[in-house]
Amino acid sequence: MGKRGRKKGADGEKRRSLLLQVSAEEFAKNGYHETKISAIVQKANVTQPSFYLYFQSKEAIFQELVAIFQQKLMTLVQQSLLESGLEKSTLEGEITERITNILSFFKEQPALTKIGFYLANESEEIKSQMARQIEQNLLIEQENGYFRADINMHTVAESLIGIIERLTKTKLLNGVTKPEQLANEIVRLLLYGLKS
């Protein structure tokens, strides 16, 4: 009997994950208001009562998707802090790798990214939270001597969010540019500017 309960639990987790995945795709494609629970359950091949076993409402599943995106993104941003004692010659590569990690997450989870970064009411707060964390990272990195002392890191953080937000939409999610290439372009622009 215990074996059966575990299988049912595992099946339940699979069904819940499938509902989250299908919901993300539907919200990303149709927007919040146009997405219907009936379409989600049909594509997930479950019954409507099954949906309500896992989620109270359309709003509840949408909010969970937003929370998943926010938590994963903030973990990546926190991990992007450069450790102290790096050789200056490795700086460009280190920064590029950290931005690549964030952009790769966006590329691997396009529906979740569209929801959390663009569609959700909370998307502006998520980007503000991201900017605050990046600014904190930059201030520490500035203290560690990686960046010029006369640069306002609030401006840099806000600019970086704007760059990432726009290029994710215009180059990354539509497959024009790979995460590594885009990260490299962003880092070279910010580190070296436009001057020849």
Automatic annotation (TrEMBL):
InterPro entries reported for this sequence: Homeodomain-like_sf, HTH-type_Tx_Regulator, HTH_TetR, Tet_transcr_reg_TetR-rel_C_sf
Keyword terms, alphabetized: DNA-binding, Repressor
Residue ranges constituting the HTH tetR-type domain according to the UniProt record: 13-73
Taxonomy, superkingdom: Bacteria
Pfam family, one: TetR_N
GO molecular function, a single term: DNA binding
DNA-binding region: 36-55
PANTHER family for this protein: ACREF/ENVCD OPERON REPRESSOR-RELATED (PTHR43479), TRANSCRIPTIONAL REGULATOR, TETR FAMILY (PTHR43479:SF8)
Protein name as catalogued: TetR family transcriptional regulator
Organism of origin: Lederbergia galactosidilytica
